[in-house]
């Protein structure tokens, strides 16, 4: 098996090289440390911001960790417990950052989270201040990365925020290209600092999808990058974000994902159909699944959405191919994604209301590359069904029919 690559590539090593290698055995080269593999499927977990915002405390994080286990979410794949903004205190005379009084002992908190089979994430940014005005990492990147590693942090969300004010305005770059170079360099600096610690940490860029981050994110070691501004717990925001993801599929893959922001499932006043559509589409988009709800008070119907194993399996599919929007008819849109083993997922989203002319909707199988009746599983009802050409489909207001076709024809 070891030599298979040469055979497969049909490579013939020049005879002189072979002879030289054979007569003079080379001393074994020390292996370059290989980059730790994280985020081979989109990261799953929970983040404090969408529910707690600036109020989050150590106890909330511990409660979230306990609930991840008690609700079965950990076993469904949610692993990261991420502390967002407002944990930061002041730097001491040596530049070491301390936590504020809400987080008295980060190492102990990391141990608590790890003891439950979970991982701990943290938040900072390339400017001097975070979005909420706390200390960020400008000029202290290596120091902060080392501190995270010492604490046992497994994930960093790195948020642009004051970078423009602190660096762009100070350096007054001549043009946009120079501006972009400065920003990429700042993200690269932290990417390298994290790598240098030797501790595997997921690196999550948060700069709202500016400057086509999906094109340069992987080059700074990012495992995910936000593609939009901040999500909000209402359908308008969820739908607007979905619309912005069309065309980004080619940038996602194992180790590097588009991030349409954290989940709002269970937050605000969204209907169950809207929560289902939100979760269905995030799974189709191979998005990180970071719940952001009040875990200790989660309603059973919300838990059922967040722990639907079939939908999670779409998100976590090993091929790592993000869905593409294949066609739109009126206010109904059809997205498909190829899955490992030749299977396929299809999401049919009714973004309109029940009165629109396109409803009920007739599926055009040929338009999504399928021919003849297709056996499928409805991933929300669990029922097996057969999709036929021009079949009339009733999809309620803001709901999504999400199916998996094991053997598409
Ligand atoms: C920005 C980010 C949010 C959150 C807040 C914290 O707005 O986009 O996700 O991290 O900062 O201040």
Question: What's the topology here?
Answer:
Elements: H1 4-9, H2 15-23, E1 44-47, H3 49-52, H4 58-70, E2 80-82, E3 88-91, E4 97-99, H5 106-115, E5 119-124, H6 141-151, E6 155-159, H7 163-171, H8 176-197, E7 202-206, H9 213-216, E8 224-226, H10 235-244, E9 257-259, H11 272-284, E10 289-291, H12 300-306, H13 309-315, E11 324-329, E12 332-338, E13 344-350, E14 361-362, E15 374-378, E16 384-387, E17 392-393, E18 400-405
Parallel strand pairs: 1-2, 1-10, 2-5, 5-6, 6-7, 7-8, 8-9
Antiparallel strand pairs: 3-4, 11-12, 12-13, 13-18, 14-17, 15-16, 15-18
The structure holds alpha-D-galactopyranose.
Alpha-D-galactopyranose (GLA) is lined by residues 49, 84-85, 130-132, 159, 206, 230.
Number of helices: 13
Quaternary structure classification: single chain
Can you give the helix content as a percent range? 25-40%
Largest sheet: 8 strands, parallel
- Which strands sit side by side, in order, in the main sheet? 9-8-7-6-5-2-1-10
What does this structure look like?
There is one protein chain. The protein has 409 residues and is α/β, with parallel strands linked by helices. 31% of the residues lie in helices and 19% in strands. The protein has 13 helices and 18 strands. Strand 12 and strand 13 (344-350) form a beta hairpin. Mean pLDDT is 91; it is low at 1-24. Alpha-D-galactopyranose (GLA) binds at residues 49, 84-85, 130-132, 159, 206, 230.
């Amino acid at each position: 098996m070891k030599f298979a690559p040469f055979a497969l590539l049909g490579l013939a090593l020049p005879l002189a090289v072979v002879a030289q290698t054979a007569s003079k055995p080379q001393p074994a080269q020390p292996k370059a440390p290989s980059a730790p593999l994280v985020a081979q499927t989109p990261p799953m977990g929970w983040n404090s911001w969408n529910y707690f915002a600036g109020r989050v405390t150590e106890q909330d994080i511990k409660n979230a960790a306990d609930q991840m286990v008690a609700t079965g979410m950990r076993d469904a794949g949610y692993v990261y417990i991420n502390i967002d903004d407002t944990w930061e205190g002041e730097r001491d005379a040596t530049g070491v950052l301390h936590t504020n009084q809400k987080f008295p002992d980060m190492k102990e908190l990391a141990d608590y989270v790890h003891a439950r089979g979970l991982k701990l994430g943290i938040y900072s940014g390339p400017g001097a201040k975070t979005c909420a005005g706390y200390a960020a990492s400008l000029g202290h990147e290596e120091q902060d990365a080392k501190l995270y590693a010492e604490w046992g942090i497994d994930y960093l969300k790195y948020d642009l925020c004051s970078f423009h004010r602190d660096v762009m305005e100070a350096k007054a770059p001549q043009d946009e290209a120079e501006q972009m170079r400065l920003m990429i360099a700042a993200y690269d600096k932290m990417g390298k600092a994290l790598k240098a610690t030797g501790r595997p940490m997921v690196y999550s860029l948060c700069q709202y999808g500016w400057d086509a981050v999906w094109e340069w994110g992987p080059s700074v070691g990012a495992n995910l990058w936000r593609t939009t501004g901040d999500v909000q717990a209402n359908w308008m925001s969820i739908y607007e974000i979905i619309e912005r993801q069309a065309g980004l599929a080619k940038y996602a893959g194992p180790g590097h994902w588009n991030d349409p922001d954290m989940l709002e499932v269970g937050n605000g006043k969204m209907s169950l159909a809207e929560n289902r559509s939100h979760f269905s589409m995030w799974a189709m988009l191979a998005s990180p699944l970071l719940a952001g709800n009040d875990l200790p008070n989660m309603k059973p119907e919300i838990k059922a959405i967040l722990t639907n194993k079939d939908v999670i399996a779409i998100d976590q599919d090993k091929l790592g191919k993000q869905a593409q929007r294949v066609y739109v008819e009126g206010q109904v849109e059809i997205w498909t994604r190829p899955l490992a083993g030749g299977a396929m997922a299809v999401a049919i989203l009714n973004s309109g209301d029940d009165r629109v002319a396109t409803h009920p909707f007739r599926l055009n199988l040929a338009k999504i590359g399928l021919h003849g009746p297709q056996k499928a599983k409805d991933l929300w009802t669990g029922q097996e069904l057969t999709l036929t050409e021009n079949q009339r489909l009733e999809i309620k207001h803001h709901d999504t029919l999400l199916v998996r076709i094991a053997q598409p024809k």
